[in-house]
Amino acid sequence: MSRRKRASRVSILDRGADAVAVLAALSNSQAMIEFDLSGDILNANESFCRALGYELRAIVGKHHSMFVESAYTSCTAKKIATRATARFFSMTH
Asked: From 28, 41, 78, 90, which residue has the greatest number of CB atoms within 10 Å?
């Protein structure tokens, strides 16, 4: 297999520093929030906080459902974890 073909098969998740650079660029241009598999907010960038009118310290540790319509809040933590695991697995394999 040629070097070019091998390089094109490497996903961005496998290229550490490149992935960090991409996330930094996205964070500079998009509103982003990070939460754990239980749905608890871990972090949000300034764009997210400004767009929704919150300060970071007011949302960290709270459940993401505070930003979701009530029709979607019935999704259990187990369903969220299952979906997140399935998406991660499909992205990496």
From this structure: 41
**From CA 84, how far away is CA 86, in angstroms rounded?**
5
Tokens of 56: 């970071």
Q: What is the pLDDT along the chain (93 residues), one digit of tens a residue?
A: 555 555 556 665 566 777 788 888 888 889 989 988 888 999 999 999 999 999 999 999 999 889 877 766 665 556 766 766 666 555 544
Beta strands 33-35 and 41-44, pairing class: antiparallel
Q: How many CB atoms lie within 10 A of CB 32?
A: 15
C-alpha–C-alpha distance, residues 84 and 93, integer Å: 14
Q: Which residues contact 59 (CB under 8 A, 6 or more apart)?
A: 41, 44, 49, 66
DSSP tag of 88:
H
